[in-house]
Design a protein that fits this description.
The complex is a heterodimer of chains A (about 350) and B (about 725). Chain A is built from 14 helices and 2 strands; from the N terminus they run αααααββααααααααα. By secondary structure, chain A is an all-alpha fold. In chain A, strands 1-2 form a two-stranded antiparallel sheet. Chain A is globular. The relative contact order of chain A is 0.13. Chain B is α/β, with parallel strands linked by helices. Chain B has 4 domains: about 210 residues, Rossmann fold (3-Layer(aba) Sandwich); about 140 residues, Rossmann fold (3-Layer(aba) Sandwich); about 80 residues, no CATH class; about 100 residues, no CATH class. Chain B has 23 helices and 24 strands. The chains are: A mainly alpha (about 350), B alpha/beta (about 725). The interface between A and B is large, with 42 and 43 residues.
């Protein structure tokens, strides 16, 4: 394990420059784009009064050179302080702390739905390569990849809420007549379970289905395609020929002998999809009024709330980097040949 | 021949592959039978259809293979015909499932396969134990515990210790993997085992062991064997009858103990195209051309294009019919020529006693050369040793004199390739020094290295991977000139231009470069120039590609060529050509060659001196004949006995200990002590030094004189020749 420990330490150390680069890029990108936060905050009266604008700029720290501003921002970040949003009159860490759990809940739900279905659809297609089933999966995948999330979400709402009345109204995590459970973890589903509030638990599950399905569609589509080619590739390998010659039962052949090998490339794709999901979340949350980061981002962008936008960008970036870090480790667990 | 006499009966079988628009006629109207407990060997080069035939019997051809005529019967039951096909498929459809149902009792219970173990034949993500016990669990509905116990028993039967049960395939050596596969093949006591190249890419000593293992199992389990191989002498040791295949047909069928008395020109060349250690040196015969690619049906004898004895009637369809010439000897040749016996060394113009021009001045020298690598382990692996370091090359001293051919012989993992990379200036040593032309090499001085690379050039093992597929023959051969920024002056043109035009040094740079390339191609026998110059690597055969690599090595007019297993990836019929070419290069250009190989026989054929390498160390060195006839190290003796291959000879002379698999003996002692029958206390305590046993003959053994005194190899050599006559 000495080798693995070394790998782990090196890998963790390599996270530092990656995340620093991420922060650097986010900071300068948000500061280069035109628009003066002081004007947005102060409104029309500041524009006509340059002295007042100067004062406001000094208050926001905008009068210092850019690199000084960056150093100040970095020091703040190292204290886990994401800054203060003047527009919302709120510390950003506090706001994000409250909005992060719903987003994670939604993303995880989408993965729970998307990953197994995607993998299964891939296998299903591979076993029927170039037959009807394969074509069906291919066409569905193409639709999933090409259809914008907001359009798909609207379709889901029209069909399942407006027409069939099987889904709850697309507003938030709980029906309005219910009260939120006591905050323990911040995750409504988990908190309601912990406090023994079965009504809330069932209701929150019911609410998460539609947005999660909408989000998972892209995951399913991409995974199905990767899995299909991966399975077809593995089936032609010498070790599968051995398993065929032995005459092992079909389900053992596929589930035990082909699947694990075929999953290897899928791990990487899943990690990348998790990242892509963060983008889809913004749109989905807006449509379903989901009180998460996505909706927050949307509102921040509309009001040009720079510190908040930066905080969200950095946070999603960090999440993305960490997921890929996990995928790297998972590789070693699934494939015994990976050496450290 | 009547089908019911046989356990397995192949009847007029033809198989085609479809690749895009192209068709490949892999097996053409082939018939033969295998009796209960009989062992037959199918011999042929790559692409002759032998593997297709084997995989068809096991019904595991890829989906693009089609049976176009005939059938295969196993115990009277049809297992392959036009409607059933011979392919496996993961497709989800009713027809496939019906066929699989019919084959359920045949697969593994009737016919099993020993796949080539060095390839990916075992699943990389499951442990060996899981893969063996799954056979019992899913084919015999055996409870888990019982299946585990049976699996461990099986591992013991093939001579593996029980820790193998818990590890992953990639943690095992090639020989151990091969034995795992043999264990799997006999698990359900089948009546027929197909061994597809069971020893290819294994070391000679392991090869020997696998062959013994398989013949033992044949006796103890009463199975019939179908052995596929390209190595006729090797496979004849395991088989009763041999079938020689060429271009998807059987050209000769004969009993294996007199395969030297063959009558088909192809068989004759195949036998005499590889040097054999047990015969005195005689010229090996190259076969011209390359095996056909079978893109179209060949009318008449398929060997016509390459045959020296061809006549017009060979073109007739009747020429491919097998005719019984003696009892149990069938030949498909209407000419049946008389072969002249291979020429004796003197008559062939060869020098047995060593090359006369050998100059004592060393071109290449290594002093105390050492290379260490860091060892890596996986998350799920159980560590097999405590070391974190691999010493690939361990204080090696070596020298090659001007105009000398020196062989470096060693098994996989002995460090011979690492050593060749150090000597070829492709890798930086951990310590020690390399000298070229007496100049000490400093790997950090990249400018000087570039100049020194003109003195030493390497030819790599795999001619398919070592040429850029997007380079034409011309640009591939010319590349070293441009990379090295060599001035195209007359000095460089001089010797390298031997085969080129007279106006070597004149004209523009372009014509000078062309002349250089022409010269190199002529030396490498890639002729005529116009036929090859614009071709791309994929249009060349393996032998032609290796000649391309040799031409590329020659163009800088180096003093020494390092040839790292240059023939091991080539078809048998093409090997002789490359070996003879290397010989000729030394003869004509006085170039030195370091020939790296695992094969004692070709080392003997080619070289003046031999170094034997074991676990990173040189264990014995001497002139070729002295080293072979008066070996003074037990390991060299083991290598020689294994390549002579007389049954039981290794066990008799060196004991079963020679096959010990345990790694890491005591760090102070002799590295070979665990496997050595003659080892005494001192061998486990003190590391022996290389010491002189006779003039120029050194051995790293405490008891070198004693071992040499036994004259073990000479005895067995005599024996082997005696038993042939």
């Amino acid at each position: 394990m000495k080798g693995f420990r070394k790998f782990l330490v090196l890998r963790v150390v390599s996270l530092v420059p990656t995340i620093f680069g991420l922060i650097l890029l986010t900071f300068f990108l948000t500061h280069i784009i035109p628009g003066n936060p002081a004007i947005i905050l102060g409104g029309p009266e500041v524009v006509s009064n340059p002295a007042e604008l100067k004062v406001l700029e000094a208050e926001l720290g905008l009068n210092k050179p850019l690199y000084i501003q960056f150093i100040i921002y970095m020091v703040q970040l190292l204290h886990f302080n994401l800054g203060y949003s003047f527009i919302q009159g709120q510390y950003i860490s506090y706001e994000i702390g409250a909005r992060f759990p719903p987003t994670i809940e939604l993303a995880v739900a989408a993965m729970i739905i998307g990953v197994p279905i995607g993998i299964y659809a891939g296998i299903f297609a591979a076993l029927r390569a170039n037959q009807v089933g394969d074509h069906a999966v291919r066409i569905t995948s193409l639709l999933g990849i090409s259809m914008p999330v907001f359009f798909l979400d609207l379709l889901l709402i029209i069909v399942f809420f407006s027409d069939l009345h099987v889904a709850p109204s697309p507003f938030g995590q709980l029906s309005p007549q219910l009260s939120y459970p006591r905050t323990i973890t911040g995750f409504v589903i988990i908190d309601s379970l912990l406090t023994g509030n079965i009504t809330d638990f069932a209701n929150s599950l019911w609410h998460i289905v539609l947005p999660a399905v909408g989000l998972s569609f892209a995951v399913i589509a991409v995974l199905a395609r990767v899995m299909r080619s991966s399975v077809l590739d593995v089936v032609n390998k010498d070790y599968m020929r051995t398993a065929f010659a032995i005459g092992l039962p079909r389900n053992i052949l596929i589930r035990k002998y082909a699947l694990r090998n075929a999953l290897l490339p899928t791990i990487t794709v899943t990690a990348i999809q998790m990242g892509a999901l963060m983008g889809g979340v913004v749109l989905t949350e807006t449509i379903f009024s989901w009180p998460g980061l996505g909706l927050y981002t949307y509102n921040s962008i509309l009001s040009l709330d720079y510190p908040s936008i930066m905080a969200v960008a950095i946070l999603s970036g960090v999440v993305f980097v960490l997921i890929n870090f996990l995928a790297d480790i998972l590789y070693g667990v699934v494939d015994p040949r990976v050496k450290y | 021949m009547k089908p019911d006499e046989y356990l397995l009966y192949v009847d007029d079988l033809s198989i085609e592959y479809t690749i895009g628009q192209m068709r490949i006629y892999a097996v053409n109207h082939l018939s033969f039978g295998v009796r209960e407990n009989e062992s037959i060997g199918i011999v042929g080069e790559s692409g002759c259809g032998k593997s297709t035939l084997a995989m068809a019997i096991a019904h595991i051809l890829p989906p693009n293979a089609k049976v176009t005529s005939g059938r295969i019967l196993f115990r009277g039951q049809v297992i392959v015909d036009q409607s059933m096909g011979a392919s496996y498929s993961i497709r989800y459809n009713a027809k496939e499932r019906k066929i699989e149902d019919q084959l359920k009792v045949i697969r593994w219970k009737g016919i099993s396969v020993v796949f080539q173990g060095a390839l990916d034949s075992l699943n990389p993500v499951h442990t060996v134990g899981t893969q063996i016990s799954d056979i019992f669990i899913y084919k015999e509905n055996m409870p888990k515990e019982e299946a585990f116990a049976r699996s461990k028993e099986l591992l013991n039967v093939v001579g593996l210790e029980s820790w193998v049960f818990n590890v992953y395939p990639h943690q095992l050596s090639g020989g151990m993997k091969q034995r795992v596969i043999i264990a799997m093949a006999i698990s359900l006591a089948p009546a027929l085992v197909i061994a597809d190249e069971p020893t290819t890419s294994l070391d000679v000593i392991t090869q020997y062991r696998i062959i013994e293992e398989l013949s033992k199992l044949r006796k103890s389990h009463g199975v019939a064997l179908v052995n596929i191989s390209h190595d006729m002498p090797l496979i004849s040791r395991l088989s009763d009858r041999l079938m020689v295949m060429y271009a998807g047909r059987i050209v000769e069928m004969l009993s294996s103990n007199n395969f030297l008395a063959n009558s088909h020109p192809y068989t004759h060349l195949l036998v005499n195209s590889i040097p054999r250690i047990e015969e005195d040196i005689s010229e090996i015969l190259p076969i011209r051309g390359a095996p056909p690619r079978l893109r179209e049906r060949i009318p008449g004898c398929p060997f016509y294009d390459r045959c020296d004895y061809r006549e017009d009637r060979c073109r007739d369809e009747i020429a491919v019919k097998l005719v019984e010439t003696e009892q149990n000897h069938y030949v498909a040749c209407p000419v049946l020529p008389k072969f002249s016996s291979p020429k004796a060394p003197e008559a062939a113009g060869m020098n047995v006693s060593g090359y006369p021009r050998v100059n004592s001045k060393p071109v290449l020298e290594a002093r105390n050369l050492t290379k260490r690598f860091e060892k890596k382990t996986g998350l799920r692996e159980i560590k097999t040793s405590a070391d974190n370091e691999i010493i690939a090359v361990d204080s090696v001293d070596l020298s090659v004199a001007e105009g000398e051919i020196v062989a470096l012989v060693g098994e996989t993992g002995s460090g011979k390739t690492t050593l060749s990379r150090l000597l070829g200036l492709l890798e930086t040593p951990t310590s020690g020094e390399v000298k070229l032309n007496g100049i000490s090499v400093e790997m950090r001085e990249s400018k000087r290295i570039k100049e020194l690379r003109r003195i030493v050039q390497t030819i790599f093992q795999d001619p398919f991977q070592s040429v850029n597929p997007r380079f034409s023959v011309f640009s591939a051969i010319a590349e070293p000139v441009s990379v090295n920024g060599m001035a195209l002056d007359q000095n460089n043109g001089g010797e390298g231009n031997r085969g080129g035009t007279e106006s070597g040094g004149n004209g523009s740079n372009a014509t000078r470069l062309e002349n250089l390339v022409k010269g190199a191609m002529a030396s490498a026998e890639l002729l005529p120039f116009e036929d090859y110059v614009d071709k791309f690597p994929h249009q060349l055969s393996g032998g032609q590609r290796q000649r391309l690599c040799i031409a590329r090595g020659l163009i800088l007019n180096p003093k020494i060529l390092i040839a790292d297993e240059p023939i091991s990836m080539l078809d048998v019929s093409l090997r002789a050509g490359v070996l003879n070419l290397l010989k000729k290069l030394r003869e004509e250009r006085g170039i030195s060659i370091l020939y790296i190989t695992h094969d004692m026989a070709s080392a003997r054929y080619l070289s003046d001196r031999i170094y034997v390498m074991y676990k990173g160390e040189i264990v014995e060195t001497g002139t070729t004949e002295s080293l072979i006839r008066k070996s003074a190290h037990p390991y060299t003796i083991a290598l020689l006995l294994a390549s002579i291959g007389v049954q039981g000879s290794i066990y008799e002379t060196l004991g079963a200990k020679i096959f010990a698999q345990r790694e890491g003996s005591s760090p102070e002692g002799c590295k070979f002590a665990d496997r050595c029958q003659f080892a005494k206390d001192i061998c486990f305590k003190t590391r022996p030094e290389l010491k002189e046993v006779s003039d120029g003959h050194q051995s790293r053994c405490h008891f070198a004189e004693e071992v040499q005194g036994k004259r073990l190899t000479e005895l067995v050599l005599k024996n082997a020749i005696g038993s042939r006559n």
